Amino acid sequence: MRSTASYSLATVMTAAFLGVGLLSIVIASGFGMYFGSQMQQKIIAGQQTLIAQNAANAVQDFIQKKVDILQVTAYFSDLGNPNQESLQLMLSKLLGQEPSFRRLFFYDAQKRDVAKVSRLSEGAASQLSPQTVDDIFSSPGAVEAYIGPVYIDNITSEPMVLMAVPITDVFGDFHGVLIAEVNLKFMWDLVGSLRVGSGGKAYVVDRQGDLIAAADISRVLKGQNLKQLATIKEFIASGNAEPNENATISKGIDGADAVSHYVPLGMPDWAVVVELPVLEAYDPVIRTLELSAWGAGAGLLFSIAAALWLSKRIIRPLLKLRDAVRHIGGGKLDVKIDISSVNEIGELAEDFNSMASRLRMYTGELEAEVSERTSELNQKVSELERMNKLMVGRELRMVELKEEIKRLQTAKEV
Description:
There is one protein chain. Among the domains are: 77-183, PAS domain (Beta-Lactamase); 333-414. 58% of the residues lie in helices and 16% in strands. The chain is built from 9 helices and 11 strands.
């Protein structure tokens, strides 16, 4: 029963040490994983923002350069007083100077097609549709610059966009618009060359969520719309607001979970989106978790060993004290505890040894006193026995004397 209690105490202490160690490991690992995840998320967002921003800057620069060329031409050319022959010559020079321009048009203030040049055949270099012309003239952006929606050319299967700038004279009077059909194959090449990790993707969408550039050109040619994706929804709903600095985890363009981020271009109203598969994005965190798991396992084993060692170190002196008490209870007073611990248990052992020493001394003194008293008692008992024998002898002689007197009296009477 006592042995069971001792081992129960050892078990309780081992469990307590182990519980404290395990709890410390879990708390430390939990904080490490949480802050590591937060830090990795910021790193991922920063990397994706940098990639998307670089691509957005390249696309913006490309578009802005084309708009600048049109604006410079409109400003320095005498388009306010157009002449058919001079207009054709000016448009032809501009077409030869800028390879990305495929067709150029000049429409006067009455929306009449005054002049046009094209790299295509005469049949393909037809006028713009009335609806397109109306859109250009009615667009608020036509005051400075107009950039239309991206479309795929039916002949070359290349992305095209219409850009237009207003024509004004020195007095600011409006005389028409200069329109250019621009080939955006550059944007396809740029997006196709972007590398987002080993399995990531980059693409460009417009404000309606239509895919206008991607490494997989077939998606663009099919006119795929991505407005159902959470990141694209955020872009569509954001207006001109700044994008969220944190990357979000949602379904990607391929339907798999991905960490995605977008950067709006502003002008034109597009956005560059980058995606990275979740497992690849959080690979450093996963590796950290694995290392943490191994570390926690090693820490657990160390905690078990330390708990066993500490419990034994504490319980062993207590077991010695228990055995010493049992020996003293059995009458063995010469027991001595050899505990060198410099702590409360060591002090208890010294006090116990001191108590046992005093107990031996008191026991010895008591035994000597008992022996002396016993000797005196034995002497008194012997004296009493001698006196008793003497008294008994006297009584016997008195009896004999009485009988002799009685006998003499009887004889005299006779």
